[in-house]
Each structure stands twice: as C-alpha cells, then as structure tokens.
Amino acid sequence: MSYLFETFEGWKNYCVEREKVLFDPVLEYEMEQRGKTEQEIWDGLLNAFSVMKEAVETGLKEEMISRSGMINNGAKKVFRNPLSVLSPEFQRLISRALAAKEVNSCMGRVVAAPTAGASGILPGTLYTLQEIHNLEDRKILEGLLVGAGIALIIEQNASLAGAVGGCQAETGSAAAMASGAMVYCLGGDIDQVFNAVAITIQCMLGLVCDPVAGLVEVPCVVRNASAAAIANSSAQIALSNVSGVIPVDECVEAMGEIGASMENKYKETALGGLAATLTGTNISKKVLIQDIEILPDDDLAD
Fold this sequence. Notes:
- By secondary structure, this protein is mainly α.
- The chain has helices at residues 8-18, 24-34, 38-61, 74-80, 88-105, 121-133, 137-157, 162-165, 167-185, 190-204, 220-239, 248-261, 278-291, 297-301.
C-alpha cells in the first residue's frame, strides 16, 4: 500500500522511516492509483511538462485576445518591455506565468496544475528555474511529483477549488506546489520544502475568487503572475532556513477554515469583489449580450 497523503508530517515520517526521497511516495501512489508502470508515469510527466512549456511559448508568440477582449497580449507586452523593474530573469518569470494563463483564457491547451485557473504558475516558475539553473528535465519531473504530493494533502485538508475555498485554494495551492517543487529541485531538504509551502500559504490566505463576468480572465491572469513571484520569494526564504514558524499542516488547516467561513459571493460566483464593481458589472452585461444568440423570427415561431 502506498502512502495516502493525509498530512505533511506523515509524508515526512514515511520518507524518513523508509529512507525514501520525497518524490518516491508520490510515484508509488500514482502507480497504484492509475495502475501504470513507473516508466508510464515518467512519460506522462514529461508530456505534461512539454505542454506547460508549449503553453508558455504559445502565449509569447501567438495572438492572445480573449473573446471578451479583457485579455489582449499582456504577456508579450511584459516580455518585450525594455524596462526591467528588478531583473530580466524576474521579467521573464512574470511574462511566462502570464503567457501560459492567457493561453487558457483564450481556449488553448494547458495543464491544470492544480486547476486551469492557476495553470500559469507552475509553467512560469519551473520553465524559468530550469533556464536559470540549467536543470535536467528529470529533476523538473521529480519536482512536479513533489508538487503533486503537496496538492494531494491540500485537497484532503482544505480545497483546490475556487468555488469551495476562494482563490487561495487555486492560485494559493499552485504557488505552494511551485515553491515546494523549486526548493526540492535546488537541493533543499524535506523541512525546507515543507517550510516553503507553509510560507507560501501564509502569503496567500484569504484571497477571494471574484472573476469579472464569471470568466477566468480578470483578475485570474495577473494573479498567476503575482503567485509565481510569491512562490519564488517563499522558496528563497525557505532555502535560507528562515522559519515560517507555523507548521505547514497547521497552515493548510487555516486555509480550510478560512475557505469554509468565506462568504459565497467570494467563491467563484462573480457576485462580489472585483466582479461586483461598477466596471466589472458593466463588462458582465456587455459579455452576456455578446454571447446571446439572436434567433430569426421564423425560428421563434416554431
């Protein structure tokens, strides 16, 4: 029987007692749950990472204009801006997270990691991490397994869905997956990986899900970029052995508690937050009118 990913403490104990690397229990779990061989799991991961990179490249090369018009080639504008606020590497990180998420908003192919609404975070972070540190694909795939284990525990004890726990459950969980994966890929130990997850969750707690016009576009796309930045800062903090103080399992518990107490209008209903602003409401009316199919009179008579 594989480990069932109930708590981070249990995951650590399982690895220590059996002298396993952090991704090993996730690999065992995937093989058991899916009924596939180890090679099939690695092949699937490689395909997923290829789709992630493809989404980044597509978002930076092709026209990305959503049907609503709210998404309009923002990733390319960031990528091509001659002014870097911090560094060219940070600029590429942000533009790549935007790019992959814009592909989703424009109905392109992405990897839901863990959801389509957060599909720019892992591609943006891991693509850039691999580039900066010249990491082999195998190391990134191991990091993806670590990220999957993180998501399994968050799903068990909180939620990965905006409709259940707000945006903290989507972009927050994706950022936690990314930060833990990055720390692992750079040689961090189990405590550092889990501390990165804890710090990330602390930074994302309480984030509401308030999509304008009910579309996964605004503010979802820019939140992917900001979550990617938070994932990087959390990884840097954790690798420097700065404690998040609150254990990761307690952080996940807090995420679940906040999600449960959050008002429904802040959980993907488009009834609160940015969606309920004057501009958000006007956009919603415009989008809904565009989507209504006007039938000819003879069809109405039938």
